[in-house]
Amino acid sequence: MQHVHSGGCGCGDDARGQLDLHSLNESLDRSSIHCLNERIVGSGRGVMTNYEARLGNQFVSSDADKELIFNCKFNGDVKLKGILCVTKYKSHQPKLLKIYINPASDVDFGNLASIKPTQQFVLQHDPTGVYPYLVRGIAFNSVTHISVHISELLHPGAVDVDDKGELLPELDEDIGNEIMVNFLGLLGSYSGSIRVPPKTAYELAPQPGDHQQTEITKQSRGFGL
After folding, report:
1. What gap in Å lies between CA 33 and CA 160, rounded to an integer?
2. What is the pLDDT of residues 172-190, one digit of tens each?
3. Which domains does the chain have, with CATH numbers?
4. Which of 97, 105, 129, 208 could form a disulfide with 86 if both were Cys (CB 3.0 to 4.6 A apart)?
């Protein structure tokens, strides 16, 4: 059984261990992917690409009010185990991510306030997409439809630099101070009938951070495929 390190586990290893997670993006019904409040129509679908393309030039930014909603369906029944949210520009890093599993209808800005999220996360800046946020609970064991609400800015006014400390290229002025997502990745495995199998397994470290995420990591001990 695979061990996932957590605070106080006593193993003496500062690393968080590795999780074998399959990318489920390749198994989405592409025609079902809709992003609400995207500044450029169709750009939201473009960020739900395969994992290898997570560092590409694709992005979606909000059109107003720093909010995006993604609705999508899978080509089968999946077990969701984690989610990745990549934003290259720290000043456009969203703060909150809420997941809605198998909602009765697509989540939109009209019904958002009346639907309780299945789980939510406070995001950290992860420009290379190596730290998944792990989900917990039986609700994630049989997923056919998922909605994701992303909102608020985590680091408004931050200086945008790369890993070498060099300034990143300036963005289109129309983006303003809205949130941006370069890659949104769904991770897990199939739990029911398989129509389009997950293509690739990735070894990723669980996202370190706040108390909420530590609890999630503890719940995920022995997590693997």
Report:
1. 29
2. 889 999 999 999 999 998 7
3. 19-219 (2.60.120.470)
4. 129
